[in-house]
Amino acid sequence: MRTPAPDRRPVALTIAGSDSGGGAGIQADLATMAAHGVFGTSAITAVTAQHTRGVESSYAVPPDEVEAQLGAVTADFDIGGAKTGMLATTDVVETVANRASDFDFPLVVDPVMVATSGDRLLEPAAERAYEDLLAEARLATPNADEAEVLTGIAVTDDRTAREAGEAILETGADAVLIKGGHVPGEHVRDVLITDDVVRTFEHPRVDTDATHGSGCALAAAIAARLAKDEPLETAVGGATDFLARAVRYHYDVGRGPGAVNHTVALRNEAAQEVTAEEVHAVVDRFVEADVSALVPEVGMNVVGATPFAESVAETAAVEGRITRTLSGVQPNRGVRFGASSHVARFLLSAREFVPALRFAVNCRFDEDVEGALEAIDWPIAEYDRSREPDTVAETEGSTMGWGARRAFADREESPVAVVDRGDVGKEAIVKLVAEDATTLADRTLALNAEVVE
């Protein structure tokens, strides 16, 4: 018989409806809480028959049963944070509001009032009942449409978001996050308003309709982080970052737009060791084959991005790069995350256009390499630094993003090699890219063989 080794975790609570499609409601909340290292409990307020294309039917759970669930959970578990979602009826809203007055843990209220279509989901009495619930909230998270229902203020920009947030604070809520997903623009701007602070969290908008359940996931992520004793601003910032990645790398499931990927950050972290090992394997092949002919004066680097990488810190590379020696090529030091700058930023920028790309290497570029590229006949792109706008050149790190846009945007076929002919004080370079490490190594060794032939 083995000795048990229990895993003690913070506990969070979701009070929301069930989504049979798994993209929203308690299914999304519990998945999000688990992804944040928090044990999730639930009180189900409604049962819905829905999928990625819409809702087929809905059944509200009687208030007494909601009350019983809340009583059972709070009597047994040490709840560290909670959130509400779909509350369905006036009686359920009132039941939760009455219970919330006794909560000794922070409550995030996501006032689910308006469908994506713009239709009102609650009867007027239920909307009025939300005022008592908001008074118990550590944070309220209405979207622009819900903020308008609650305040009569149409949210169209940061100024009106602040006005709506300040009006909701008057209900007694400690803080309000006006979500910007429904406000048009190239960026999503979520505005946090408290008595002391107004702070905006901005993320590039993702061109997708797979946002069903995004509000549930955001509120659940904040509740989970509050259960871990994070300060409110830190919790909101981390949760909005979490959601931005979850929407971009959404699940391609069902016959509709898909579902928010609640475990994407967890899966990305789990892939770090494998990614580093793959970079190691590429470097070993380069050393064995002696790719000296392709090593630029600035040194060569191999970069591998985790499957859902969003930053340089999530790319593995050779610390100190690969350089020529009297006996071939050698990495200066080992592989670590965040070790590359230029090649990593280029790869991340390329992934904005071809998300499947995960590996890149920078190689010398001269007449011999150019001839070898023509002989191999790969798809090739090129950018000219002399055409780089001054505003880009003046911003640290922006050249790689500008070059990647020139190379990958609006192309029917993704390039294998991207040529940068350099500029004054800038060495000419060709970067090879691939979706997997083996292909990157194969392509580099094929180019090397053509050059030294």
Overall CATH architecture of the largest domain = 3-Layer(aba) Sandwich
Number of helices: 15
What is the beta-strand fraction?
A: 15-25%
> How far do the termini sit from each other?
65 Å
Could you name the CATH homologous superfamily of the largest domain?
A: Ribokinase
The outline comes out as elongated
CATH topology type of the largest domain: UDP-N-acetylmuramoyl-L-alanine:D-glutamate ligase
Number of strands: 18
What is the SS-derived class? alpha/beta
Low-confidence stretches: none
Can you give the helix content as a percent range?
25-40%
CATH C-level class of the largest domain is Alpha Beta
Report the average pLDDT across residues. Answer: 92
The largest beta-sheet arranges its strands as 14-11-10-15-18-17-16
- In this structure, how is the largest beta sheet organized? 7 strands, mixed
Rg: 26 Å
Provide the number of structural domains.
Answer: 2
Tell me which oligomeric state these chains represent: single chain
